[in-house]
Design goal:
Layout lengths: L10 E4 L6 E5 L8 H14 L9 E5 L4 H5 L22 H14 L3 E8 L6 E3 L15 H9 L5 E4 L1 H15 L16 H7 L3 E9 L5 H15 L15 E10 L6 E2 L7 E3 L4 E4 L5 E3 L4 E4 L10 E8 L5
Parallel strand pairs: 2-3, 2-4, 4-7, 5-6, 6-8
Antiparallel strand pairs: 1-3, 5-7, 8-14, 9-11, 10-13, 11-12, 13-14
Helix pairs in contact: 1-7
Length: about 325
């Protein structure tokens, strides 16, 4: 089926009884289609009467970035999941999408955002910060997010995204920006879940597995059904949490500076690091080594100079 790049397909089911307002999103990155397949399966089941929405509202956006989806690549003209904010003067395709998607997110209480990743690995969830009144990401729904993350069917939970990104921005400013860099301010770290928290809701990102993993759409499908059951939107059986949970936090983002920067090996997300391990070598020969025990997270072998290259993670002090 040909997908128009001029509008977003949105499926909304509004019960006659009040309840929470849930939005489920897929294909924020166009080559991450497991969430799209999971959403489509659930929508078909609702339309056939196999799932009945009895309370509240659920909205599905199977493809958030139609241009990227049409070309089966991560982005259209830029990364939709960075600097996701409305703008009065949209310049790129994703700016126009944001002007539609952001108000739609703000109409809801809860977001389940479905993604996949490039390297092999097990599915995991990303949650937001602790409850706080700070300037970066003030928040009051920590317990709600933890409860949602615990029921999605994954055992690895990651936090610390926006804090790590803000620290990376400070480092960029201190050393001077790499030519071509676009990540020059902390707002560039705002994606779907961060925007949802700005709009007074809460959100969890579910990374359903590797892009091509045939099991990934099933992970998305299971998580959507669990979320409908947890929130009481549908009278579905709720499975218990899948613990014990491995909780990690993102501590640092490392940028790629030049085309000649290279990894010392082919890394996979959550590969363990021991202090002193050689991670990468810069174009000028400078070695990048692990300062302490931990993990490499989101290694991007195709990162452009001036963009995030990989993250360093550690065990989180936050239990689920």
């Amino acid at each position: 089926m040909s997908l128009s790049t001029h509008h977003l397909r949105v499926f909304r089911f509004v019960a006659l009884q009040p309840g929470p307002r849930l939005v489920v999103t897929g294909a924020v990155h166009g080559n991450e289609v497991a969430g799209t397949r999971g959403i489509e399966r659930v929508v078909r089941e609702i339309e056939r009467g196999e799932i009945d929405i009895v309370r509240g509202t659920v909205t599905f956006v199977p493809v958030c970035n139609p241009l990227a989806y049409r070309h089966q690549r991560r982005t259209g003209e830029r990364n939709l999941n960075r600097r996701l904010l409305p703008t009065a003067q949209p310049m790129q395709y994703e700016d126009h999408v944001a002007n539609v998607l952001c108000p739609l997110l703000a109409e809801h209480d809860v977001l389940l955002d479905l993604h996949t990743f490039r390297s092999p690995g097990q599915p995991f969830a990303l949650r937001g910060p602790v409850d706080n009144a700070g300037p970066l990401e003030p928040f009051v729904h920590e317990a709600d997010e933890a409860r949602l993350a615990a029921h999605l069917g994954v055992a690895r939970i990651v936090d610390g995204w926006l804090d790590a990104y803000a620290r990376g921005v400070a480092e960029r400013r201190a050393r001077g920006l790499t030519p071509g860099a676009v990540a020059e301010d902390a707002a560039y770290g705002i994606g779907t879940t961060e925007y949802m928290r700005c709009a007074a809701g809460y959100a969890v990102t579910l990374e359903c597995g590797q892009h091509e993993d045939p099991a990934a759409p099933g992970v998305a499908y299971h998580a959507i059904r669990q979320t409908l059951a947890l929130l009481g939107l549908a009278d579905l059986p709720l499975e218990p949490p899948t613990g014990p949970f491995e909780c990690l936090t993102l501590a640092q983002v490392v940028d790629r500076f030049a085309d000649g920067d290279r990894f010392a090996r082919t890394w996979t997300s959550f590969d363990a690091l021991t202090a002193g391990d050689l991670i990468a070598v810069r174009a000028d020969g400078t070695e990048v080594r692990a300062a302490q025990d931990g993990y490499i997270v989101f290694p991007d072998h195709g990162a452009l100079p001036g963009h995030e290259w990989f993250y360093l993670g550690q065990k989180s002090a936050r239990a689920l």
